[in-house]
């Protein structure tokens, strides 16, 4: 059975690299949002407690994914290019 040429697998590999780079940017943005919201004190009239902390974390995760999915801040592109360079060298 003949093996497929390396270029036949390239588009799938590039899609996986883009997905990985976007996931990295999403996680970075989530962490950045966590640090930004760490100092926010809940209004005693409207919230507080353990539940608010959990839901704030989920909201930051969602926002990080949404920002990355809409183009992000450029981290995913830089990470993608670097991963391509690393593959070419290796």
Question: What would you call the shape?
Answer: elongated
Overall pLDDT: 83
H/E element string?
Answer: HHH
Radius of gyration: 19 Å
Q: What portion of the residues fall into strands of 2 or more residues?
A: under 5%
The N- and C-terminal alpha carbons lie at a distance of 27 Å
Poorly predicted spans: none
Secondary-structure-derived class: mainly alpha
Number of helices: 3
Strands, count? 0
Query: Which percent range fits the helix content?
Result: over 70%
Largest sheet: none
In short:
With about 90 residues, this protein is mainly alpha-helical. It has a domain of about 60 residues. It has 3 helices and no strands.
SSE layout and pairing:
Elements: H1 10-37, H2 49-69, H3 75-89
Helix pairs in contact: 1-2, 1-3
